[in-house]
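User: Teach me something about this protein's shape.
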Amino acid sequence: MKHFEAFRIDSANGCLWRDGEPIDLPPKQFAILDFLVENPGRVITHDELLDKLWPETFVQPQVLRTYMLELRKVLGDEAGNPRFIQTLPKRGYRFVAAVTEAAETSKESLPPIDARSVPAFQAGAAGAATGFVNRTRELAMLGAEFERIGDGKRRVVFVTGEAGIGKTALVDYFCRGLPAGTVVARGECVPGVGAREEYYPVNEALGHLCSSAASEEVCRILARMAPAWLAHIGRQPEESQLNGQGKVETRMPGDLCAALEEICRAGRLVLVLEDLHWADPATLNLVAALARRRAPANLLVVATFRPRSIAPGHPLRGLKHDLAVRKLCAEVSLEPFARSAVASLIMAELKQSALPAGLSDFVHQHSEGNPLFAIAIIEHLIAQQILVNSGENGASSFEIRSPLETLDSEVPGKLAEMVELEIERLGPEVKELLEAGSLLNVAFPAWAVAAAVDCDPAEVEERCDALARDLHFVERAGEDELPGGACSPFYVFAHEVYREVLYQRQTASRRAQRHVRIAQRLAELFKGREADVAREMAMHYEAAGEMRRAAEALRAAASHAARRNAQFEAAELSDRAARIEARV
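Assistant: First, the predicted structure itself:
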């Protein structure tokens, strides 16, 4: 680990501490800080940083400004009077603080766990046996909440994180280790279904309850206290079970709450509701009632959802805020895996204790620590025969047979299908904007999207802001300064996977048309200074198949570089122009 002032940074595990306290940093911000700290006192150019973060991908340098702003907030640094990161206008950045090697300590090897103890259920089979790794802290937090309900204190725990981050894996592992006698009921929200069928995940959970080892007692209680709920899942109660009530057709939330409380008297009940961001309002109201009722109940509600998938004003936001204010809930937030955790995940997946050199770094970089993405990349490497098992007699001994850099840019099939399903749920105008944004790679400015779709820039800016509010995979990242002092906001895809799928789903002719429009708009914006953006114009013309215009732009960029005495850059651009002209 390296130490600067009150901070310590652990490159291997992707961790940053201030005075021994852990600090959460998103993967990109951590990667920038880590690279700067590894090179103290040296000027790191914009291009060098961009190549480090997005290798072989063209990304506008403006995106770095936003990441630096966030880093300075975390470090308590000031651009005008830097203690850590010095900005060198039009050149790059320099880390100016003294950096020393810091001895690792057991105290800082993991963030502190806010739990009284790690429950007995966690001490079972090793995580590697199930592919479950790096969630000791989060599992202990769930365990602590489970221990609390033993005193009749009902609790709600929200398990949150982006798609593929491992919410379901964590809950599965937690439920498998619960003590004997614990009743678990699970229901899953389905996109689109909630609008047509109330209580969909609750009905599924009740179905599981009525098929569990305690089914006879559960059905008896439901028939007596909530017969309409039992009938709704296809288990019509017998006349003898109705306790003289007769046929009841209306499902009353209070009846189900009381029935679940009765079920809890004999032991603990864990009710799991997954993907609550797709839940119908009636289900959310039921969760609120279960949490706020005063009667003792050994009940733990575990609800998973993606925070970025709930728009402002969504009732789930109000529910979570209300329960948090009343101290009736807890949140277990899952962050992306650090490098070491990705390595452990790969070892579990490949069933071997050592990995080929460079494999875990490659997967961590391209998955950005998302476990689902990491596994999809490994499967893709195996399918492409870049990663090959040379073990004998059933043993695993995977080796890299081709350079990882030869891997094509195609998104692994399983991952592409998952992202495609998310995109298909969006409206046509939203998809049009996102597809246009994908032409600019990871970061895209509103003015370029407006040019690509041939719309009014102000209107597109409003629509892009709405996208950033409503979609979990797009966020507003800053403003792009244009000639004449005007500004245009720019946005960032949460992951390269989303951008790649959006790019590939467009027809070649549509992509070409949009690339040309962006290049032409660049020329208009920088009229008289076209050489400043000639390289970017060339990228768009080349992507559109306009090779002559791409070569002309590169020649202009080379001349501009030569006038700045950047002879190496000028030669590189001229050579690239010659190669493109040879393809005409």
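Now, about its shape. Confidence is low (pLDDT under 50) at residues 104-131. The domain at 120-333 is CATH 3.40.50.300 (Rossmann fold). If you'd like, I can walk through any region in more detail.
User: That's plenty for now, thanks!
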